[in-house]
Design goal:
By secondary structure, the protein is α/β, with parallel strands linked by helices. It is built from 23 helices and 20 strands.
């Protein structure tokens, strides 16, 4: 990004140094990083942690003499958006906001680079207005473009593809060959738009579903599915064929389920897309799981631990050997917790090896093994080989059977730290599940050092959440003992910032059970999950219900979100 004031061009980096916001050394480091990875220098300086977004905005707006606009908070008018041609919107990363209230001839435009004279001139000529540029963050601009222009681009590509198919009267085989050959064909652009739209709207999954006479596209955002597009049924075969090609699947096979994998770059970030195709009565349904390569390796602070939970988490991780289990249903953030744990433990003096199906994110300095059933490389087979590789820490993607559990326990007892996941409802029931898999209770007690059960709840949007006093039965649910005490809780409302859902983002709820000597003795006796939980609670463990209640009382989430996860775990009110 360059800023031009008059005829003299000033670089943003130099401007930040002059303002004393960053040092010359930090600028040079950012420039070196930019050379290797690309991106605008302002964003790079923020990514590297040299400056906060607020300070960057303050310095730039002060120096440029223009205003900053938070695009997410703007309710955009479709008619205003149509004023600027789409090619200019994408070329200059500029979005029209509306006319100036005082002067209807002035069009206010949110721009990533508001000092780009060519952009201001081109938009002014195209709209026949005087352009007032405003500074907006690049991520916000790209998300807005994806949200408001992505659908129209996708619909245009879809319509063009449908017309081509009709006019050429191609057979299915010819159609598939055409899709394979033409990189810029409408169906290629359509699939690209669907995936990019999902990324920019923070979707974790994209569902492409054949209905009786149409194709529905839905995004899972913050755990809830949202309908985004509907296409003509004739597009289904083209979309499926394109996804099979880029996912490395068999394009001719339509009767069996298939799995594939795609790597895609969106806005300079690399995403790993796991694809599952399933034949249904109306055709093939596709689900794509989106994972950012850097999204799984978060700092501990980003997981939602409070000071108390963080202390327990660090205590569990500090064990030199034993088994640490992370449990919860699919999509509860187990992989993120596992990868965060591994990143914490990843130092030069330890040998970390993982066995995963599939490998979800690549981490420097860790040896990662992909399970391959066809080549007879199962979890158990890989584990046996790994034990001969002199490991210090072993990560097993999931303990699925007794054989894997047996090897994991043996590895833990012989001086290795084993980290893995399991699908159970609570920390205590995880112990009994391991014993059900054929592990002797006294061995399980000896091997386990900590169990973390977790769920994700949606965060309330900070801009529109509404406070109210909790009623008596709600206080009971929250575990409030003093019924006369006034307890403030918050409800979701919905605004432009959160897409009218009332929620923005998610946060983890954790049940951490470190295995003490006393708990070890209880497990070794072959006790039930209830007895194990009772002992853990007497040692200070917080259940998922207690953790969720804390978030409700602190105004982070709503009571309805808490109920979702606590009913799941079998808690009764």
């Amino acid at each position: 990004m360059r800023i031009s004031t008059g005829r003299k061009k000033i670089r943003v980096g130099d401007l930040l140094v002059e303002a004393g916001a960053i040092t010359e050394e930090e600028l040079q480091e950012a420039l070196a990083y930019q050379k290797e990875h690309g991106g605008r220098i302002g964003n790079v300086i923020m990514e590297l942690g040299f400056i906060s977004q607020d300070l960057l905005v303050t310095v730039l707006t002060t120096q440029m003499g223009i205003d900053f606009i938070e695009l997410k908070a703007c309710k955009l008018d479709e008619e205003i958006l149509k004023l600027v041609p789409e090619n200019l919107v994408n070329k200059y990363k500029a979005v029209p906001i509306g006319y100036d209230e005082m002067n209807p001839n002035v069009l206010r435009v949110a721009m990533v680079d508001p000092m780009d004279i060519n952009a201001v001139d081109d938009i002014g000529i195209a709209t026949n207005t005087q352009v007032e540029p405003l500074l907006a963050m690049e991520d916000d601009v790209m998300e807005t473009i994806g949200k408001y222009f992505g659908n129209s681009q996708a619909m245009e590509a879809a319509e063009q593809y449908r017309r081509e198919m009709e006019s050429e009267g191609l057979t299915t085989a010819e159609e598939e060959a055409l899709n394979e050959d033409i990189e810029n064909s409408p169906v290629v652009l359509l699939v690209k738009q669907i995936i990019e739209g999902g990324v920019r709207q923070r979707a974790s999954d994209i569902h492409i579903e054949p209905l009786e006479s149409s194709v529905r596209v839905r995004y899972r955002i913050d755990g809830a599915l949202k309908h985004v597009m509907t296409y003509d049924y004739s597009l289904l075969s083209g979309i499926s064929a394109r996804i099979k090609i880029i996912g490395g699947m068999d394009i001719a096979e339509k009767r069996k389920p298939q799995d594939g994998r795609i790597t895609i770059m969106v806005d300079r970030r690399e995403f790993d897309v796991r694809v599952s195709i399933l034949p249904t009565v109306y055709g093939e349904k596709t689900v794509m799981r989106l994972t950012s390569k850097d999204g799984l390796t978060k700092p501990k602070s980003a997981l939602g631990f409070d000071a108390e939970t963080l202390k327990v988490f660090d205590g569990i991780l500090s064990n030199p050997h034993g088994i640490i289990l992370v449990t919860g249903p699919t999509g509860s953030g187990k992989s993120t917790t596992l990868y965060t744990s591994l990143s914490e433990l990843n130092t030069e003096d330890v040998n970390i090896i993982t066995v995963e199906d599939p490998v979800e994110a690549n981490i420097d300095g860790i040896n990662q093994v992909q399970v391959n059933v066809k080549a007879e490389l199962t979890f158990a087979a890989a584990l046996r080989s790994i034990l001969r590789q002199d490991p210090d820490i072993i990560m097993i993607g999931e303990i699925r059977d007794g054989e894997t559990a047996q090897i994991a326990v043996q590895a833990a007892i012989t001086g290795h730290l084993v980290v893995s996941t399991l699908h159970t409802n609570s920390a205590a029931s995880t112990v009994t599940r391991i014993i059900d898999m054929g592990i002797e209770p006294y061995v399980a007690g000896d091997a386990l050092v900590g169990v973390i059960a977790q769920r994700l709840v949606r965060r309330l949007c900070t801009s529109c959440k509404q406070a109210r006093l909790a009623e008596e039965d709600e206080k009971k649910i929250l575990g409030i003992e003093d019924m006369d005490e006034d307890v403030v809780i918050y409800e979701p409302v919905g605004c432009t910032l959160c897409g009218d859902t009332g929620f923005a983002g998610r946060i983890g709820v954790y049940e951490m059970m470190p295995v003490s000597k006393e708990l070890q003795a209880v497990i070794a006796r072959g006790s039930t999950a209830d007895v194990i939980e009772k002992q853990a609670l007497s040692e200070g463990m917080l259940t998922l219900k207690m953790g969720a209640a804390k978030h409700v009382v602190n105004g982070i989430t709503s009571l309805s979100e808490m109920k979702k996860i606590t009913y799941e775990t079998g808690d009764e009110y």
